[in-house]
Amino acid sequence: MDLGIAGKSALVCAASKGLGKGCALALAKEGANVTLVARTPATLEQAAEEIRKATGVRVNIVAVDLTTPQGRAAALAACPNPDILVNNNGGPPAGDFREWDREVWIKALDANMLTPIELIKATVDGMIARKFGRIVNITSAAVKAPIPILGLSNGARTGLTGFIAGLARQTIMHNVTINNILPGLFQTETMMGRIDAMARQSGKPVEQVAQDRIKTIPAGRFGDPQEFGQLCAYICSAQASFITGQNFLIDGGAYPGTL
Ligand code: NAP
User: Fold this and answer.
1) Ligand 1 neighbourhood includes 67 CB (under 6 angstroms)
2) What pTM did the predictor assign?
3) Average pLDDT value for the chain
4) Is 16 touching ligand 1 by the criterion CB < 6 Å?
5) Model confidence at 257, in pLDDT bands (50, 70, 90)?
6) Cα angle value 52/55/57 (rounded, 5°)
7) From the CA of 128, how far away is ligand 1's center (Å)?
């Protein structure tokens, strides 16, 4: 299926690795020109080269910290009128809420709630004026089923989700949709780092910890960032113009509920 987004411009946040990179690649495969943002120039350039080689589209990179106003301004200067915005960022640390002071909370809210809202604020009116826009926020399966040690993530991402639920109904009449994708366990650097840490803490071999996690996934495997990206590309397609304010769980069946 031709997704109807060839030639569109996409600003993809936190896109040098993992889920963000998966989204950038899938959008580029559909012919969208992509601007990738992350902090580390070397991995960004590597991801950009990989996507250029695989697709032949124009790929820009911006090496900045998205949680800073200067970083966001630089990203928007490189891609001033995106048709597609994929909001993503590093996740907050795990821990016990008794140890988190105001500063820790503000950092999490800044990264996983306020940065996406700022980027939406800067881009959504242009999308409305041009009568096309697709905004996808990468959140977490923890929005649907909170993970106790990830309280910072649960709180910040659910705040973003509530905000989006209101806004998404105000933009769709202009062919601007806003949706969230909720990843379960995907094989990325961050997730494998967590497994390494769990192995060190428990004294179990990494492979065993990974297998224990896989046992919680009915699909019998971790997710692949490329399949995550393909879902993102569909939500960004011309065909998906009647879908807004939704939360798409992609978790290999891990969430056990009926709805
Ligand atoms: P990843 O593979 O480690 O990639 C993270 C990306 O974010 C990298 O490109 C990183 O590049 C960039 N980044 C981090 N902080 C940034 C900042 N302040 N400004 C700009 N770029 C930044 O991580 P991932 O697994 O794809 O996770 C993406 C998001 O999904 C995270 O919020 C994570 O918590 C959430 N999530 C992931 C899973 C999973 O199973 N993988 C499950 C649920 C939720 P630099 O470090 O160079 O900046």
Assistant:
1) yes
2) 0.98
3) 97
4) yes
5) very high
6) 65
7) 28
